[in-house]
TrEMBL record:
Coiled coil: none annotated. This is YceI family protein. The lineage of its organism: Bacteria, Pseudomonadati, Pseudomonadota, Betaproteobacteria, Burkholderiales. Residues 1-18 form the signal peptide. Keywords: Signal. Residues 20-184 form the Lipid/polyisoprenoid-binding YceI-like domain. SUPFAM superfamilies: YceI-like.
């Protein structure tokens, strides 16, 4: 879940400058939403780093990478936060980082120039890497670029929730990693 969020953030930050962008952490957010017993649960991803090099004139030559500190996954409750760090969930002791690295950034078909992109890359969580893709929206606000997107993943693909937690009637397999990224 966290890596997906980080990946989305990194990609989002890449959208309008030829040089790497500076992320405004105070204005940026990354989170994950999933369902537990069919009730939506929102979590925050508090610690991440992103390296983004984006050229709006040539998005296909752009690239981004993101690292997320798995221990920064915050469900709003200290006991739950401690639980998700265990081996059955994120196994933070063995896999402290989730990562995303772009393989392509392309303008979305039919979208206004410079506003919507299709992003693809490699997401790694808990030592398992898969190819992912998601839409990215970019808009300019004064001197900043704002990147918004949602990366859908399946938690079981990354072995998040092993043993009794594989039961998707308890915790759904679908997770949405949402990001709002502000950079300049």
């Amino acid at each position: 879940m966290i890596a997906g969020a980080v990946a989305a953030i990194a990609l989002a930050s890449s959208a309008a400058f030829a040089a790497p962008l500076k992320v405004d952490a105070a204005k940026s957010t990354v989170g994950a939403t999933f369902k537990q017993l069919n009730v939506p649960v929102d979590a925050k991803l508090k610690k991440f780093s992103a390296v983004i090099d984006f050229d709006a004139a040539k998005p296909e030559s752009s690239k981004a990478s993101v690292d997320i500190d798995v221990a920064s996954f915050d469900l709003g409750d200290a006991e739950y936060n401690k639980e998700v760090q265990k081996k059955e969930w994120f196994n933070a002791a063995q896999f402290p980082k989730a990562t995303f690295v772009t393989s392509s950034i392309k303008p979305s078909a039919g979208a206004a120039a410079g506003t919507k992109y299709d992003v693809a890359g490699k997401l790694t969580i808990k030592g398992k890497s898969t190819d992912v893709s998601f839409p990215l929206t970019v808009k300019k606000e004064g001197a900043t670029q704002v990147f918004d997107g949602t990366l859908p993943i399946k938690r079981l693909t990354y072995n998040i929730g092993e043993g009794e937690w594989k039961d998707t009637s308890m915790v759904a397999d679908e997770v949405s990693i949402k990001f709002h990224f502000v950079a300049q």
